[in-house]
Amino acid sequence: MPSRRTSARTFPDNPSGIHLLKDPAVVRRMIRSAQLDPQDLVVEFGAGTGKLTSQLSGTGARIIAVERHPDLVARLERRFSEAENVRIVAGDARSVPLPRRPYAVVANIPYSISTSLFRRILTPDQTALQEADILVEWGFAKRVTAEQPRNFEIAWWQLRFELSIVGRVRPHSFAPPPSVDTAHLRIRRRSGVSAGLLQQQERRLRQLYRPSRRLRRR
Ligand SMILES: C[S@@+](CC[C@H](N)C(=O)[O-])C[C@H]1O[C@@H](n2cnc3c(N)ncnc32)[C@H](O)[C@@H]1O
Description:
This is Methyltransferase domain-containing protein. By secondary structure, the chain is an alpha/beta fold. The protein has one domain (4-208): Rossmann fold (3-Layer(aba) Sandwich). The protein has helices spanning 24-34, 51-58, 70-79, 114-122, 138-145, 152-160, 195-208; strands at 20-21, 41-45, 62-67, 86-90, 103-108, 129-137, 161-169, 174-175, 182-189. The strands form two sheets. A seven-stranded mixed sheet has the order 4-3-2-5-6-9-7. Strands 1-8 form a two-stranded antiparallel sheet. The longest helix has 14 residues, at 195-208. Residues 16-21, 45-49, 51-52, 66-69, 72, 92-94, 108, 110, 113 line the site of S-adenosylmethionine.
């Protein structure tokens, strides 16, 4: 058992983008927005000390809490050892296996992995992601919700998912505070988009944008 308590102060130089949520109102808003029930499967990337995890667990949904920092993994394992609906996964959000059955994401992720994580959960044709409530850097949220997407990748995400900003979260809601504002981003899979329409729209987007070489969908 580690002798010291793992807290935001344990990470003075903060290489892992650790900004622990300390504002209960933000946590409540994310849980309310996600509208989870016991049938749902939820992935929380970057679970930290488990503040959001514990509220997610309270919904009765099955929670997969992914965390990379070993001290935090140990702490999460202790904290949720009795919670039957919470599984702690020690690993990198950019490479842990993702569910094949429909799932939601509710998470406060490190800013630095936003793009790679979005590529994993939004880009593939076969993604099982249904919806997400995620805290991301404000500027990133503005880019992915822009009416005129700046590239094919974002246009592709917007084609199949509705992305919207629910609210702005100020630095003092986290410990330690980040240097910029955060956004609560809501993502919902669009319903009623047929495969035929999707192909047609994709062709149109490819004419408008030069697709990024990094766009891997399968
Ligand atoms: C912004 S903090 C959020 C912590 C917690 N969810 C909260 O809201 O208090 C991001 C968390 O992601 C973890 N993390 C950083 N990089 C990661 C990665 N590549 N994969 C999984 N977790 C990561 C950090 O250790 C940290 O616990």
